[in-house]
Amino acid sequence: MIKKLQTGFPEGFLWGGATAANQLEGGYTEGGKGFSSADYAKHDDDHQKNLMNLFMGTSREALLKAMSDNEGNYPKRRGIDFYHRYKEDIKLFADMGFKTFRLSIAWPRIFPNGDELVPNEEGLKFYDSVFDECLKYNIEPLVTISHYEFPVGLSLKNNGWLSRETVDHFERYCKVLFERYGSKVKYWLTFNEINVLSMTAFLSGGILMDGITNMKEAQYQAIHHQFIASAKAVKLCHSMIPDAKIGCMLARFESYPMTCHPEDVWEALQTDHGNLFFTDVQVRGAYPAYTARFFKENNINLVFEEGDEALLKEGKVDFLSFSYYMSGVSARKKEGETTHGNMMFGLKNPHLEYSEWGWAIDALGLRITLNKLYDRYQVPLYIVENGLGAKDTPDENFYVEDDYRIEYLRQHILAMKEAIQDGVEIMGFTPWGCIDLVSASTSEMSKRYGFIYVDADNYGNGSYNRYPKKSFNWYKEVIQSNGEKL
Ligand code: BGP
User: Fold this and answer.
1) What is the pLDDT of residue 341?
2) Which of 38, 75, 423, 448 has most Cβ atoms within 10 angstroms of its Cβ?
3) Which of 149, 193, 254, 444 is labelled catalytic?
4) Is the pTM of the predicted complex or chain greater than 0.70?
5) How many CB atoms lie within 10 A of CB 121?
């Protein structure tokens, strides 16, 4: 039988928006919360410096210094004060007609140091209220269990995800979440952009560089531990909340060959392997064949425990979610103009336009990626991040005419619509930063993605009041018409 041609967005398509606790909540010491790896991120006016801070290793000394520094500018500690304003924000999402809201739980709010045996009730209560508020408006919460946030207690004690013990702490954390929120939350994601751990060790891996001689190996060992932790979470979720679905989350880097020279094509394939390695494991349940050579050539020797292979097989995810912002270019000769994207530096594509932050704008790339991922895995796909980070200029009433954002999203939604006609199964679309929030890579407020303007700057000045932008009503109509009115 040939699959029936689907021409529009399916019934029940999950339209919504995406956020993460560490970029949104603020209240970083309130409600018994412990110090998180995100609270370490300092903002610098020099973008390049912010990026370097992210990619360079973090030492124990630097971490301890930041933990006692109350003077420096750490925007993620402030977020946009969702911790106190979540009711107002969720009401605005409901006004836009959101079917779903992606948010993450701050692990250190539930287990302040990461290794306690009893969870912090105040932290649990906070998310109870947030989920109740969503459900009041029939908004389905989509919860990321770990989004660029790690209780640094476990970094100082065990060096983060480098230690196998962290898997047990994570498992306990998941058990608590599934038990407490199982009746309220039916969509879960394990690790946000799990592949980014191969680029930056501390952000989501909580790894401190002291004493590590082979950082690549350490990162891949930590990744292995996250794979195991994710597989355990999938199994737990299936047994504790049988009507829930749980997925993985990849920062998808679609990479084109610079030319049709076979060596450029080969480079692009290599880039793809580096990126799809993660979903190969989490969706197919085993390390792919190309791993052995990559590990050998990079001097990576992993410690597998007995039973790990079986666990990976048993813990395959139900769906594949990913972020897509841009495409990149691969070439045998690293010559020509370069740019940097989200955690990725690379060559510029002469056929594309670039955002103010140097991210290539490429809607067709989304269609290509959707087709590629579906061809490879045949599991439902979920676009849980997409959007344009831009500087907004509000008028005297704080109104922003963000036609550039509307245009970006319109093109990407059209690309999704085409992919649906190509036969790709897409569960939903949650554009990133549906309300302005602090940037992950540069820790600034001025890089805005939202349908809602937040009156706050990079230094914590402003009223933090919320104002719908032009894109607010536009997106509302998109949702109302199930993607027909663009
Ligand atoms: C992804 C992260 C998000 C988010 C987004 C935009 O990598 O999962 O947390 O912030 O990118 O990136 P940025 O905030 O750096 O513009």
Assistant:
1) 60
2) 38
3) 193
4) yes
5) 11
